[in-house]
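During the reporting period, we have paired protein sequences with backbone structure tokens. One record among many follows, to show the layout:
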Amino acid sequence: MNKLVDILSWVAMKCTQNKYLNAIKNAFQNYMPISLAGAIGMLWTNVLVNDQGGLGTIFPLIMDLKFFSPIFEALKFASISCMSIVIVLLLSSEIAQANGDYDIYPVIVSFISWLIVTPHVIDAAHVNVLLHTDNGAIIQSKLSYFVHIPHSVGVSLSDFTAQGINVMYTTSTGLFTAMFVAIVATELYHLLRNCEWLVIKLPSQVPTNQVLSFMNIVPTFLTCLIMSSISYLCVVSTGHTLNTNIYNLIQLPLQLMTGDNLIAVLLLYVIISLFWIVGFHGKNLLSPLIESFYRPLLYINMAAFNAGMRGNDIPYIFNTAMFQMFADIGGSGATLGLVIYILLFSKRHDNRMIANISLFPSLMNINETVIFGMPIVFNPLLDIPFILAPLVTLTVGYFLIRVGFCPPVVIEVPWVMPPILYGFLVTGGNIYGAISHFICICVSLLVYAPFIYIYERKQKKEEYIY
């Protein structure tokens, strides 16, 4: 056991000390309130006031509220379709603070660098349009599908261009480029600003604001020049933009590797549980990895749901909200099943007292009272179901989504949302999401049942001996 504690302590130290993983984790956590605002907009326009598969098909009167839909459409667009812009700013701010730069200027340089590497000319062949049909449906398509220019004219749609930034660079497909630019530009600017021979120094009589402005001239210019050169060389050498290369070579393979990889997720949760059973907060220690790899998948699913995709068209099964729904039922270890079992079947006063105290926090997915009260920590008999329960519920949830019974998780909801309601909301207001959540609560109860039964018999025997 001491050897396990030493190994896990070393892993925990490495995870918590990595500057970039922590910065990414903090950036996405800081983005969460914005994504929740976007989720409310999506629930309004895609679920509540929607007569194309939403609540409006059941209660037509609710469509009278469609007058307010533009408010929620704007909210949804700003938070979901522009997420990469916000991530650039948030991540750059986190890295700048880690470097000891607490002014806003590194963040501005990082944002300008992102604008530099982002194509700003859109040709008509790649313009996306929304087609409003007579029955009220909205179809996302391309302008090129509806406009045909004869070859005899001598021009094509690609010859018509406009200044602007395509939404594909600002939404979830541009997330990894946003992270790359934020990290590289912020670090590059910090390095250049700390080179004394690059700093323009003015006499002490000059006002402070002017001194700072002149100090930033050379580092800012060089940072922007280098980022622009990287972007240009990428196009010249590969024929594709920096964003396209990062998406095809890094983002997409990484998302495919993690988004549907059940084995990797199960291994991740084994490690989380191992941390817990030796007294560490496993979820917090591994949150830099979870937030870095799996929260972007949630935002990609949100963007897909916002674009009208449903069911198997949603790209990924696994994401942070899916983990909360199926693995962290009542908290780490899916201990809500344990609490419910004790309240229903246990006759021991001490265990029932812990369960009574823990019930309300467990409904808010807070379970420290269970973990340290039973206790589960350093308790081999209860450690087994504590490790097994989230593995089983995750597997059940995975296959419920895979076979199409449970819709994919597509909306971010506060993690303190009570179970069943949480499953209903994160699946886009789908009743089968709530049913699936209830099924996994029952599964976690069944996993804990034999172990808590044996544990209570052991408690009774020890009382008899003493």
In short: The mean pLDDT is 85. The longest strand covers residues 128-132. The two ends are 27 Å apart (CA to CA).
